[in-house]
TrEMBL record:
This is Plasma membrane fusion protein PRM1. PANTHER family: PTHR31414:SF21, TRANSMEMBRANE PROTEIN DDB_G0292058. The keyword Lyase does not apply. The chain crosses the membrane at residues 156-180, 269-297, 508-530. Residues 1-30 form the signal peptide. InterPro entries: DDB_G0292058-like. Keywords: Membrane, Signal, Transmembrane, Transmembrane helix. It comes from Cinchona calisaya.
Length: 559
């Protein structure tokens, strides 16, 4: 059978063209890393904050849709976050465009993120088919065409060995870059998760302190005076509300922490395992090719280059999908999340899907906590001042006896400064409203020295006043719940301090995977040329040896 002599340049250009085209398609079709080059910027005050070209994207120019939006998950939010960036095809919805914005708990959003990394899958299919046809053609040529003698080029052999070594080193360098990026990414995720959990714990601790102080105020007494029943009823009513808020905070944050851990651990094993497999395949392929150890690959009828090509062709598509798609998914999701936080910071009062990360206390609940806290603080001060005016500063006749009469005398005790007026508005306190100097020495619960307070009464007044003061000092936190300042600070810090490192680490992984994958693909192509030169070299040596045996004096005769 006559066969055309193969053109080595055409053999090289055919897979190379598909390789470059597929890698370009993979990089451009998947998540673009340009959107994830998050640059650190100074964040102004969280109130009335404007963001200009933050994280490389003009967030303020994006259209933020504020409307009642009901999704397939039957959860309604006012603000659709990162609507432009998340406008992707949804394979679970007949490949229609997803319009629900950033929503970590929505399966359609997650499907659209996964579809954004479909480039490696397409590349794997192209590579699998094209190179399969290419290998089939080579096998047909080797099996069906008669082999003719051919020459041996030492230069071509040396160049192929050098190129094969360079590609193998490049693949090793790419895998090393992947490992560094994976470690940095894991560290950034852990730090971010710890930061969110710490902030959530602060909210839980502060709410618990408020609840403890409210219960302490409910149980305080000065002599026979206690807190009014209506305030006790309000405390009982708000107790369940505060406990519900703290439970929700704890459940949501712990669930997110566990979900992140359960997601990262298998992904870490997968990334490390696949990267290690690619590394071992590249190194062993190089060694087997250079040393001519085709028999170690388990093939008796194929030489080393065919077996190496077959194994690499068979494993490369799976590795390409796993290696490149994972960091592409990370890059898309992290970029979406950071942009969503930036957009929420411009409209913090709207309900959004960010509440799936850390809950937002609704305004009604926060106002209720604020009202009860202020009311109890005001009530305890009124109770104290009532005792001061009716008992301590009163000129009670001796015949009344204890506890109303205990020989109180001397300068009048100033009433306690109430930080709120009757409308629960703030008011300023006058200086010098202290009680220690009004304490007398007692004998049998009767003052023996000038003074308006017995030590026991002073302790009761101080304890009750401290409870009221503690509730007053906790009001800024309650106000933060009302205007979501704690969320503004949380998401602002994440956007400024954590998003850049997450973006850089995913870019490292993505770049390393692309670099190593391209290096392995080139190695696969160069193996073909190297094996061809190796066969020619072996054939030339064999022919020269046979010629020298048949005519040992050939050179002397020619001379």
């Amino acid at each position: 059978m006559n066969c055309l002599k193969s053109n080595p340049f055409l053999i090289f250009l055919l897979p190379l063209s598909f390789l470059l085209l597929a890698n370009f398609f993979s990089s451009s079709y998947g998540a673009s890393l340009d959107h994830n080059n998050l640059q650190q910027a100074n964040i102004p005050e969280y109130l009335d904050r404007k963001i200009h070209h933050y994280h490389g994207i003009n967030v303020e120019g994006h259209t933020r849709r504020i409307a009642e939006e009901t999704t397939g998950d039957n959860i309604t939010y006012d603000l659709i976050l990162a609507a432009d960036r998340t406008h992707r095809r949804d394979p679970t919805d007949h490949f229609n465009y997803y319009t629900g914005g950033w929503r970590i708990g929505n399966r359609h959003y997650l499907a659209s993120v996964a579809f954004s990394a479909a480039g490696p899958i397409v590349f794997a299919i192209i590579w699998f088919v094209v190179f399969a046809v290419f290998l089939l053609c080579l096998c047909c040529r080797c099996c069906c065409c008669s082999r003719k003698s051919y020459g041996y080029s030492p230069t071509a052999y040396t160049i192929s060995v050098v190129c094969l070594a360079v590609c193998t080193i490049a693949a090793i360098a790419g895998i090393a870059f992947v490992y560094m990026g994976q470690g940095k990414f894991e560290s950034s995720i852990v730090n971010t998760s710890s930061f969110v959990l710490h902030k959530a714990d602060d909210v839980i601790v502060n709410l618990k302190d408020i609840l403890d102080n409210l219960n302490a105020a409910k149980n305080t007494s000065i002599g026979q005076s206690v807190l009014p029943d209506n305030l006790k009823a309000q405390i009982n009513g708000i107790t369940g509300t505060i406990e519900g808020v703290t439970t929700n905070f704890r459940n949501v944050t712990q669930k997110n922490s566990h979900d992140i851990e359960n997601f990262l651990n298998p992904m870490k094993i997968l990334l490390i395992g696949v990267a290690a497999a690619l590394l071992v395949l590249s190194v062993l392929g190089f060694l087997f090719s250079v040393l001519g150890l085709g028999c170690l690959l388990g093939s008796n009828w194929m030489d080393s280059y065919n077996t190496n090509n077959y194994n690499e062709w068979r494993l490369s598509p799976c590795e390409q999908v796993r290696l490149i798609s994972n960091p592409a998914l990370f890059a898309s999701f992290i970029g979406d999340t950071c942009i969503a936080m930036d957009e929420w910071l411009q409209n913090p009062n709207a309900r959004s899907a960010l509440e799936e990360i850390i809950p937002k206390v609704d305004n009604k609940t926060a106002q209720e906590i604020s009202s009860v806290t202020k009311g109890v603080s005001l009530g305890t001060v009124d109770m104290i001042n009532g005792i001061i005016t009716k008992v301590i500063n009163a000129n009670v006749p001796p015949n009344v006896g204890p506890p109303l009469y205990y020989n109180q005398n001397g300068p009048m005790l100033p009433i306690l400064c109430n930080p709120y007026d009757s409308k629960l508005a703030d008011r300023q306190c006058a200086a010098g409203e202290v009680w220690k100097k009004y304490v007398c020495q007692v004998s049998g619960a009767i003052c023996k020295t000038p003074g308006r307070l017995t030590p026991n009464m002073y302790n009761q007044l101080s304890t009750t006043a401290n409870v009221s003061y503690t509730l007053y000092k906790e009001m800024p936190f309650v106000l933060d719940l009302i205007d979501s300042t704690y969320l503004k600070e949380l998401f602002g810090d994440i956007s400024k301090n954590y998003c850049p490192s997450l973006s850089v680490s995913t870019e490292w992984m993505y770049t390393g995977f692309i670099f190593s994958s391209v290096a392995v693909m080139f190695s696969l192509i160069i193996w073909i040329f190297y094996s061809r030169e190796r066969r020619q070299r072996s054939y030339t040596k064999k022919v020269d040896k046979e010629s020298s045996i048949e005519n040992p004096f050939a050179y002397s005769q020619n001379d």
